[in-house]
Amino acid sequence: MTLRSLPAAPPDNHAFVVQVAVGKAHSVLLTDEGVLYSWGTNNEFGQLGRACHNQDKMLKPAPIIGGIKQEIVIQIACGMNHCVALTQRGALFAWGNNKAGQLGVDGFSAETPTSELAITAPTPVKHFEGQEISLCARSCSCGPESSACVTVRGEVYVWGAISYYMLGAQKKYGKGENCTVPVCIKNLPKELYAHDSGPEQVSVYKDHCPAIGR
User: Fold this and answer.
1) Are residues 135 and 143 in contact, defined by beta-carbon separation less than 8 angstroms?
2) What is the radius of gyration, based on Cα positions, of the chain?
3) Which residues does 172 contact at the CB level (< 8 Å), separation at least 6?
4) H helices present in the chain, as ranges
5) PANTHER family in the record, alphabetically (predicted)?
6) Which among 14, 63, 4, 60 has a CA at the least distance from the CA of 37?
């Protein structure tokens, strides 16, 4: 898909693109001013994070404002049909499809009706409001139906479908019973803790989650 119609920034505005993340049928970009733009297909999942009334508006990059207007975003990640954003103060926001609990928002359960599994605006990830230093995120990432982050203390948290493989060992609970809020991974390899700083970031795939040290 060709990126079009993103307005050029005035010379003194310095609104340059610093990161782009891509999902199955949607994309998000981050400017150096901490502003998010999205475009692509919104379908029933709300992964654009903004209201779109027709296909033409979906395909044109437009800012995501609702729920995150006062935040300065420093990192973004896209799953198949969801997004996660990290703010300057260490808070996490998520939106899109929550079928596997990959948004990590409060109040989700396996009994949630399918019609209520889409969150169409950035919503705080439970526990990561950026208020306690122990739960301030350093980086974030997404798998197809999973999310993860590393805290400033070097702890790795995961939620969504990845928890079925990492925490349940495919035995402790059923396939649909994923962790729907962030859960800390214990006993990470010592080589990830050079200088006691812990891993810098983590990558998520369908069934595994490698961490990268400093």
Assistant:
1) no
2) 17
3) none
4) 55-59, 162-166
5) REGULATOR OF CHROMOSOME CONDENSATION (PTHR45982:SF1)
6) 63
29-39, pLDDT tens digit by residue?
999 999 999 99
| Tokens linked to 134 | 């122990």
Task: Judge contact between 117 and 99, C-beta under 8 A.
Answer: yes
For the chain, the 3-state helix, strand and coil shares in percent, each to the nearest 5, are 10, 35, 55
Q: What would the pLDDT profile of 152-188 be if each residue is shown by its tens digit?
A: 988 889 999 888 877 765 555 565 667 889 988 876 6
Instruction: Of 90, 94, 108, give the one whose Cα is nearest residue 147.
Output: 94
What does the alpha-carbon distance between residue 24 and residue 28 come to, in Å, rounded to a whole number? 12
User: Residue for token digits 């296909």?
Assistant: 55
Q: Which residue has the tokens 């950035």?
A: 122
Tracing tokens 């896209």 back to the chain, one arrives at 78
Beginning with the edge strand found earlier in the chain, give each strand of the sheet holding 73-78 in spatial order.
73-78, 82-87, 92-97, 118-124
- Domain at 17-213: CATH code: 2.130.10.30
**Coil, helix or strand at residue 196:** helix
Q: Which residues of 83-106 are buried (b: 16+ CB within 10 A; e: fewer)?
A: bbbbbeebbbbbbbbbbbbbbbbe
**Paired tokens of 175:** 């396939």
Domain assignments of the chain as residue spans, ordered by start: 17-213
The C-alpha atoms of residue 172 and residue 163 are separated, in whole angstroms, by 11
Which amino acid, residue 155? E
